[in-house]
Amino acid sequence: MKHRITLALAGLMLMGMIMASAVQLAAADGEGLRIPKVVEAGSALSIPTSAAGKAVLYIVSPAQVLRRNVEPGEAIVIEPGALHNAGHYLALLISQGATDKAEFNVVAARQPASVNFLAKPSRLPVSRPDGISGVAYVFDVFRNLVLEPTPVSFQLSDSAGVTQTRSVATHNGVGWSKMNSAPKAGAAQFQVSVGSVAEKRVVQQVPGDPCNLKMSGQRSGQRMILETAPVRDCSGNAVSDGTIITFTQTYNGRSEATVDVPLKRDVARTEMPARDGAVISVATGVVLGNEIRVGAQR
Amino acid sequence: MRTTSQLLARRPGKLFPLACAIMGGLLLSGFAQPTVRVDADAVGPRSLEEQTKTAVVRDYLQAWKSMSEALQENRADLLDTSYLGLAKEKLAEAVREQQELGMKVRYRDLSHHLNIVFYSPEGLSVQLLDTVEYDMQIVDHDQVLAPQHVRARYVAVLTPTEVRWKVRVFRAQPE
């Protein structure tokens, strides 16, 4: 019986030793580490300790990990720049038989140092209200998202020199705005400014759909020579070369011939058989132009 | 050859350690899923479709899993599936620091309260706030410290890639 008790005690002691070496339990929480609740990224930090013996300080978060050996009675100094990633940190001071802990936040530096600018689309038709969107994410020098409200200015300057400006404040690090595309086609400069930091994107504003598609025809023997007037959008911009113009000839309501012609220098030209009584129409996309009756024009 | 039922009937105690080991393994491997609550009432300016919301939440939770695995195993490559850009660089930097210090940190997320607050006009970024509770345990060489319970608020920005939403910005903010 005595032998069994001795064995059981020895077993318990062995288990205890294994557990003690494997898991250092927080035997007694100390007074707590004196760390400010909020620390600016990159700033120096001095943490006073009252550890009687040697200790180890861990400062841990998914953003960053630091470890410092601590001599008895000495304050722990975190050098400027050492703690630079914004995040929620847990500080643990492990000394003989005691664990002190503190939680604190490292926040982004207030001064914006860079901006991540998404401008969409890169190409769009002219005169589209709220057609262009800009989204800006503001970062500090350590590339931490600046969550404090920060003024952001969006500027869209078109090829005629006309500028639209919108100013917003960021919310949770993001500011956004929508702008109208200009009536005049051409490359527009889309810029976002945050303090002294600016980022620029180019937005290509292309002519819109053709407006008032008109053609004229001239009989030349057995052929009709057809030509459109210069094709422009509703703002007067020349529609891009290559835009397909479709000429269709019908006779007695039946389609007889269709010709697709790309615009070249603002106009489209083609020839069709001149059959008396036939009707020739012109269209591009969903825009319908005028009609010509062969034998008499209308 | 004895069947399991025969073994259970004759010596039930023999299977107990095996069952414990299986249960322990399942728990450690993340069998215990975190509780998740999602609010998306105030999202804008673009309206968020239900399908998009589901995908964003699913991929964000997967990102926590990837991060936990990467920081527990000190393998930055495990971040590739869920992170890109700044978030990936910063987490990879933390993995590198842990490696240099001979440390590993185990994170186990217990609950998430997600609030989707921003869906950009062109649909290229989603921002969410996450009030998360998790346990973290530091392993310094052979020394395993006691687990610590942490509650924090995270801001994440996700952007769509070919097959999933990936985390581009990931940082905690004071509550």
Strand content of chain A: over 45%
Main beta-sheet annotation of chain B: 6 strands, mixed
Shape of chain B: globular
The assigned CATH architecture of the largest domain in chain A is Sandwich
Radius of gyration of chain B: 20 Å
Q: What best-fitting shape of chain A do the alpha-carbon axes yield?
A: rod-shaped
Distance between the termini of chain A: 123 Å
How does the major sheet of chain A shape up?
Answer: 5 strands, mixed
Gyration radius from CA atoms of chain A, angstroms: 38 Å
Distance between termini of chain B?
Answer: 61 Å
Order of helices and strands of chain B: HHEHHEEEEE
> Count of DSSP E strands of chain A?
25
Helix content of chain A: under 10%
Query: Looking at this structure, what is the CATH superfamily of the largest domain in chain A?
Result: Immunoglobulins
Report the sheet-strand fraction of chain B.
35-45%
CATH topology of the largest domain in chain B: Nuclear Transport Factor 2, Chain: A
- Helical fraction of chain B: 25-40%
The DSSP helix count of chain A reads 1
CATH fold call of the largest domain in chain A: Immunoglobulin-like
Task: Please give a structural write-up.
The complex is a heterodimer of chains A (298) and B (175). By secondary structure, chain A is mainly β. Helices cover 7% and strands 50% of the residues of chain A. Chain A has one helix at 2-22, and strands at residues 23-24, 38-40, 45-47, 55-60, 65-70, 76-78, 87-95, 98-107, 114-120, 123-125, 132-139, 151-157, 163-169, 174-179, 186-194, 197-206, 210-211, 215-220, 223-228, 232-233, 244-251, 254-262, 269-273, 279-284, 287-293. In chain A, a hairpin with a 2-residue loop joins strand 18 (215-220) and strand 19. The radius of gyration of chain A is 38 Å and the shape is rod-shaped. The termini of chain A are far apart. The model of chain A is unreliable at 12-30 (pLDDT under 50). Chain B folds into two domains: 1-32; 33-173, Roll (Nuclear Transport Factor 2, Chain: A), CATH 3.10.450. Chain B is globular. Chains A and B meet through strand 1, strand 4, strand 5, strand 7 and strand 8 of A and helix 4, strand 2, strand 3, strand 4 and strand 5 of B. Strand 1 of chain A pairs parallel with strand 4 of chain B.
